Amino acid sequence: MLEELKKISDEITKIIREDSFCYNIEPFCLKDAVLSYPMCAGKRLRPAMLLWACGLLGGDVEKAKYAAAAVEIYHNWTLVHDDIIDNDDVRRGNPSAHMGLKNYALKNYSLSDEAATKYGVDFAILAGDLQHAWANYFLLKSVSLGVPSDVVISICSDMAFYASTGLVSGEALDIDFSYRNIEEIAVDEIERMIFLKTGVLLNFAISTGAKIALSTCSRDDERINRLMIFSTALGSAFQLKDDWLGIYGDVVKFGKPIGSDIISAKPTLLIKEALSSSNTEQNAVIKSYLGKPDLTENDLKIIRKIITETGAEQSIKDKIARYKLKAESIMESFPDSVYKDNFLDLNRYLECREV
Amino acid sequence: MLEELKKISDEITKIIREDSFCYNIEPFCLKDAVLSYPMCAGKRLRPAMLLWACGLLGGDVEKAKYAAAAVEIYHNWTLVHDDIIDNDDVRRGNPSAHMGLKNYALKNYSLSDEAATKYGVDFAILAGDLQHAWANYFLLKSVSLGVPSDVVISICSDMAFYASTGLVSGEALDIDFSYRNIEEIAVDEIERMIFLKTGVLLNFAISTGAKIALSTCSRDDERINRLMIFSTALGSAFQLKDDWLGIYGDVVKFGKPIGSDIISAKPTLLIKEALSSSNTEQNAVIKSYLGKPDLTENDLKIIRKIITETGAEQSIKDKIARYKLKAESIMESFPDSVYKDNFLDLNRYLECREV
After folding, report:
1. Which of A128, A134, A164 lies at the smallest CB-CB distance from B133?
2. Residues A145-191: pLDDT tens digits?
3. Which H or E run includes B285?
4. How far apart are CA B41 and CA B35, in angstroms?
5. Which of A119, A136, A169 sits opposite B30 (nearest CB)?
6. In whole angstroms, what is the distance from residue A346 CA to residue A44 CA?
7. What pLDDT is stored for residue B148 in this prediction?
8. Are the beta carbons of A140 and B123 separated by less than 8 Å?
């Protein structure tokens, strides 16, 4: 399955590189920023799920290729804007879009650090806007691969109405939570935010592949429903595992700083669970670390120990296992195929991954 | 014609208010921000031009209504993001989107001014993103008014490929110019930037109305070409008049601060022309005011006098008159109709307007 992902990733890179959308973008640094995330491949999970959903329902995956590129570029604009909002300076081992553009401004104009930061943010807003348009453009090009016009229109409409309102609301709720007291935020509010922020785009990807396979304008189909329940469960397991890795992970393998959710007092389900299952003493210790700007290796050991003692770690692991089982049993209900095998492998992989 | 504009504006407001796109947006302050510019009507020039182009070519303007709402909302997302980039705190007499959201954060969370500013910018980025998606959604809904699917797809594709790459490149060049020495920027660079920033969206609006009228997927039509030359001339006259009003206008009527182009040392064609037509002494005086943070009424008098003496004011007025004549003669080539009269009135109005 990882090999298959790699193959898809290479193909998506090729499709993106060969597309003419960026030709007319000026100035050069903006064009460069628009291409940067899409060309620097991440896991390409979303295009893969789109293509596999198409294949699983007997569709011609060749027809779904532009839609797969579209969902990847769509994901990328949300990352560019999120990185600005979250002040994230690194993405996939490189400077994030706004940091890359800031560095460009420092190199090419004699600007103060503050002015260069503003230049970087301004251009990164515009780069994300262009990727947003590019995602639409790619989806529309599906007509040239033989997807009927009305199906393309229904998918574009899903992207605008379902994916955008969901995903952007999820990001907005996430920001809003960071200004609220973690104990006042209910678990179901967090679950809903996570679904909007990650689940919605997976559902969009999978339903798009399915619509192309079935040549239908409606998601009101029993198979599409089953696939969306599958991707929701997969997405929830993925996110919970991410929360777990963010505290218990290996910094070298995970590639992101461990403990950053504690430092930013982020209301993850793991931290919420730990707070609500803790006794008075444990509760006080956890809270004393939430928002602490620099976390030592020793601090992290103490936090890990306490979260485990509250039972929260096991509870999250149990939840992940339940989501995985749910996803598996739904996928088993589809006829055997290489696409089904890929989905089942992906589901197993997401639970045991260390990255 | 102004009455007709008002009627269209009311209708667009009604269409926007009744649309369901915003129902699911959370939290409430984000939904509010998404609706804010579209509901607070500006001139609604772009939707009017779209509808009149449709009528002019014999189309059913009812079919073009969602597209007209789409072009207005599209214009709005670019304003929301531009206002962040340009640090503009006021829009149509109200706080701009990021300022409104900052005020909301100050009222509802106990934040420092800096943190509230960040909150305002972050949410305004997301509000613009949602309006961008909304514009797509409205355009796609044109199918329900009887516009053929393939025509809708071609218009959506124009919006992504032609309007977005053009308009966003124009905004990026405008930012880039502000970091360069005004004397190193060529006149044709400025003209190109202005065309991208304002002309492209007028061309998109007018060609969309025309495509709906002719039920065609291609802009490669002699009438559409003529209409686009018309809107390019109209847009150039509009922009030059804006530059002129920005220095010679009446602050009360114009509604924007006079002299702000001097304060921000913005390379408008009027200022460029004045610099290149000036003698050494005049040149030194103009430059001494460029970038001056506070401009008195007396400073403005001196600047006006010098710009007039260099001949730049007359030169810009002559250019406006030539663009107006060009637009008029093209419009005269179309058969008589109420839509033609509206376009001719608009063209006359744009030259003599004081607001």
Report:
1. A164
2. 999 999 999 999 999 999 999 999 999 999 898 888 888 899 899 99
3. helix B280-289
4. 11
5. A169
6. 12
7. 98
8. no
Contacts of B136 in chain A (CB under 8 A): 136, 156, 159-160
B137 and A157 within 8 Å at the Cβ level: the answer is yes
Residues A45-84: tens digit of each pLDDT: 999 999 999 999 999 999 999 999 999 999 999 999 999 9
How many whole angstroms separate alpha carbon B238 and alpha carbon B124? Answer: 28
Average pLDDT, chain B: 92
φ, ψ of residue A134 to 5 degrees: the values are -60, -40
User: CA–CA separation, A61 vs A248, rounded Å?
Assistant: 38
Q: Is the peptide bond before B27 cis (omega within 30 degrees of 0)?
A: yes
pLDDT bin (cut points 50, 70, 90) of residue B256 is: low
Nearest to B160 among A27, A136, A152 (CB): A136
A303/A312 Cα distance (integer angstroms): 12
Residue A256: predicted pLDDT: 67
Three-state SS for A217-284 is: CCCCCHHHHHHHHHHHHHHHHHHHHHHHHHHHCCHHHHCCCCCHHHHCCCCCHHHHHHHHHCCHHHHH
Query: What residue has token string 């699983």?
Result: A56
Span B169-212, pLDDT tens digits: 999 999 898 888 888 899 899 999 999 999 999 999 999 999 99
Measured distance CA(A79)–CA(B225) in Å, rounded: 39
CB contact under 8 A, A161 and B129: no
Contact present, B85 and B98 (Cβ < 8 Å):
no
pTM of the model: 0.94
- From chain A, pick out residues whose CB is under 8 angstroms from the CB of B152: 149, 153
Task: Please judge whether B27 and A173 are an interchain contact, meaning their C-beta atoms are less than 8 angstroms apart.
Answer: yes
Contact A156 B169 (CB under 8 A): no
Specify the range with the lowest mean pLDDT, choosing from A135-149, A235-249, B209-223: A235-249
pLDDT, tens digit, for every residue of B259-318?
788 887 888 899 999 999 999 999 999 888 888 888 888 888 999 999 999 999 999 999
SS3 content of chain A, % helix, strand, coil (to 5): 80, 0, 20
Q: What is the ipTM of this complex?
A: 0.94
How many degrees, rounded to 5, is the angle at CA A172 between CA A162 and CA A204? 20
Please give the DSSP secondary-structure letter assigned to residue B217.
Answer: S
3 state DSSP class of B68: helix
Q: Tell me the C-alpha distance between A73 and A71, whole Å.
A: 6
The number of CA neighbours under 13 Å toward the Cβ of B349 is 13
**Structural tokens at position A333:** 């209900």
Q: Tell me, what DSSP letter sits at residue A143?
A: G
